[in-house]
Amino acid sequence: MKVDILGMALLKRNKGLKILFVGSEAAPFVKIGGLGEFLHALPKALCELGHDVRVFIPKYASINSEEFPTEMVIEGLKVPSNGQEDIICNVKKYKNDNKPGEPVNYFLENQEYYEKRGSVYGYDDDAARWALLSKGALEFVKQNKDFRPDIIVANDWQGGLLPNYIKVVYQDDPVVSKIPVAFIIHNLHFQGMFDHHHISEMDYDDGKSEIPALTDPKLLKTNFMRRGIRYADAISTVSPHYAREITTPEYGELLDKLLAERRSHLSGILNGISYEKYDPENNVYVEHKYTHKNLAARRKNKKILQQKFNLEERDDVFVAAIVSRFTEQKGMDLIIETIEPLLKNFDFQFVIVGSGESKFMTYFEELDKKYPQVTAHLSFDEILPHVIFSGADMIVIPSKFEPSGLTQMEAMRYGLVPLVRKTGGLADSVEDYNAKEQTGTGFVFENYSRYAFYGAFVRALETFKYDAVWQNIQKRAMTANFSWEKSAKEYVELFKKALSRLKN
Asked: Is 494 in the same domain as 477?
């Protein structure tokens, strides 16, 4: 065993790290889900801490070349394909990446795999597209002498082959083999181009065999997530609670044993939120601006909310809300089982915004018609969440599992009290209200059952009757620290551990 000399030297000098993030999407260029926001916000926060951060994503056809002009960095990059003909790519750079404190953004350009596609995800050869991204990033590192990262950060199953490539395919490479890799799990449920719950013994991927070529059909049955976990120098999830959960059979998605074996390399760091975007004192979509010191102004926004959603205008009524994708993961079945008994027995208004599975869409549409105190907007909207966050009293998030979750943190920034299940990032970000100690930032239930959810909802309804108590819950929620700066500092420590870890 020998110590990684480079890592120890960096630790002693305490200099900024050179960090390369590799992923399938990054805002503002392309954002489909939370990963896109993560690969924008975290690199920016790390830059502000003094680190040299670069982001490497594909150059999709959907990226507006006029809005985001690029310049060539490497033309004709040859990416090997397991003895087959090399795949030729270009690497370009966003032209406007010259501001201090901002990350540099690179794009892997290839007509066949990226630019001829109308969407980011959903193609039969997605496995090949993400394998090419990983290999392309490593070939870029080999050839680009202007930037040699101290650590590479691969993200979710799409980046799962990158650690495998470094440790096996590039194990003798004088440049790449010396770079540690961190693997970030954003959602363990997605592991590759197949359903890992229904894989035959013949197609099972143990993560140790040779990686198939990009054109080999076996790549479609390769478990990218398993390989990322097996070969990474550091593994992290997007919340500490989720990191513990996935080492158990209930949440481990058939990878719990491997994760338990690699427990010493596994950690969890809670995602952050943008304090500029979610700021009730300055947000343009908040009619009446306020802070935690001026909650009286917030009450005026309830009337705005009720007007927008055609609800009876009442200052005294309790307004609960959902802003979510409608899936079983988000606990929609608990709401279906529970909401009508609540509506029949208690006086409150219920606002629903989101979209998702048809059975839930149909149910909420019918609920809207049946109850005048219920209103549903069944499509995605960028503005309405801010209206709800600034005017409603409680946000409902009864998730079956939730790796991190952002909605609860965004809502709390506005003084919108969360009701959540104790799982993943929800457990890490929301402290249950304790009436005796007068502590807590929301209402938390543990068992995934209609009775537990019903009880927590009623507890919130009853607590709302005590105005001073409710305002104190709001104030504590608004002053909780969910900044990306806090998360970035934790990631720096994770990267330093990967750099200093003993290697074979």
From this structure: no
